[in-house]
Amino acid sequence: MVFQGERVAVILAAGMGTRMKSALPKVLHKIAGKPIIGHVIDAVRAAGVDRIVVVTAPGGQSVRDYAAALGARCVVQEAQLGTGHAAAAARTELAGFDGHLVIAYGDMPLVRPETFAASFDAQARTGMAIVAFQSTNPSYGRVIAEQDGRLARIVEYRDANAEERQITVCNAGIMAAPASDFFRWCAHLTNNNSQGEYYLTDVPLLARRDNVACSIVMADEAEMLGVNSRSELAAAEGEMQRRLRSAALANAVGMQAPDTVFLSHDTVLESDCTIGPYVVFGTGVTVKAGAEIRAFSHLEECVVHEGAIIGPYARLRPGADIGRDAHIGNFVEVKATKVGDGAKANHLTYLGDAHVGAGANIGAGTITCNYDGFFKYRTEIGAGAFIGSNSALVAPVTIEDGAYIGAGSTISGASVPKDALCFTRAPRKEIEGWALEFRTRKSAEKSASKKGK
Ligand code: UD1
Ligand code: MG
Fold this sequence. Notes:
This protein is α/β, with parallel strands linked by helices and 453 residues long. Helix content is 22%, strand content 29%. Strands 12, 14, 15, 17, 18, 20, 21, 23, 25, 27, 30, 33 and 35 form a 13-stranded parallel sheet that branches. The protein has an eight-stranded parallel sheet with strand order 13-16-19-22-24-26-29-32, with no helix packed on it. The protein is built from nine helices and 35 strands. Strand 2 and strand 3 form a beta hairpin. The protein folds into two domains: 7-224, Alpha-Beta Complex (Spore Coat Polysaccharide Biosynthesis Protein SpsA, Chain A), CATH 3.90.550; 230-422, 3 Solenoid (UDP N-Acetylglucosamine Acyltransferase, domain 1). The structure holds uridine-diphosphate-N-acetylglucosamine and magnesium ion (MG). Residues 12-15, 55, 77, 80-83, 85-86, 105-107, 139-141, 154, 156, 170-173, 199-201, 226 line the site of uridine-diphosphate-N-acetylglucosamine.
């Protein structure tokens, strides 16, 4: 069913998050490279929400800064008096708003857009909706249904009697309702319960008094994991990784050992690229079709073009742009460097703040010396240039197209002209018989000193 009308999400994020034992607010901890609350904001947006209000604690300035940067409005819940009280804190911000609202929790990063959308759709049919899932975990409120499948009420586990505690349909915390009615109901909530809190879960009871029925939308328990501790953070990360890996496999990405590959929320792996075991993707990576990332490589903020081969054991840092069919081999680090099509840096090299022309060959142990302790400088390596092994290119420096640098050189100063040979090696010296004479003299000295002892 297509739902018409403006949609708003109120995201509750004023909880203390004390069990994380962290200076960073709980909802700013990252899952797949994105803060937990960022996942929630993106999911509600994908469900058609155009306005977002985040309810924060007085000390939650960094949460407000982050949410505001994503276009959300923020309000402060002065004291944490319960989920119903938190939702009501959004009232002033939404004064005069006549559309539909969904309540989401800022610490549930795994809820899918489809689940928020289903709650809006069910709400449009019956007046109100909650999301529920199957679980026996005693930390969740129990959902008591009417004969017709609609909601009778939600009871918190600690307030429930023995029979109610047997129920395995649990409250997710997601609730959709018409905004103006919702805030009117919230204003009538009381805190007459075991925790002395204003429960969001009592809102459907108040709605019933106005003859508004509440649907129950069933969702998967895996979506409902809330993050309260480091182990739940790790569990949520694990679930998100499983999702990202299956999405990649479904998109025809080749992965020999998907469980060992770590992805970011924004990793772009084009169809028919191949990712070896134990590869880690930070944020901002694109791997184009036909490229291969071999085992134990680490990539962030970079692009790997068609047919390129990276690793094993390569490190691509921000600004690495690896051209078509280029090779970046073991123990090669690339930062802020464009490597041209077909160029090769196969062993033990650092390329930083550089440009490597198409087809150039960078020998083992080449280092671009890009930093003098104060400023960074650029290295230009022309197309088809050949850099001999163990060369130090002291930036700023240019090696023109087709030039040849002798192994073991330190190149600084003026450009090396096109197609020239340049090397800075010390001249070779040879002393015939020196080694034999040296060995003979030293072993004689040694046996003399042993006898003397
Ligand atoms: C709530 C539900 C419970 C449900 C469970 C699902 C109520 C009364 N209970 O319980 O039925 O099964 O979630 O996870 O709603 N928050 C505020 N301000 C407050 C209190 C909470 O912003 O004053 C925020 C928290 O930051 C969190 C969310 O609301 O994001 C849920 O709060 P929490 O204390 O975890 O609720 P539960 O007791 O788990
Ligand atoms: Mg909770």
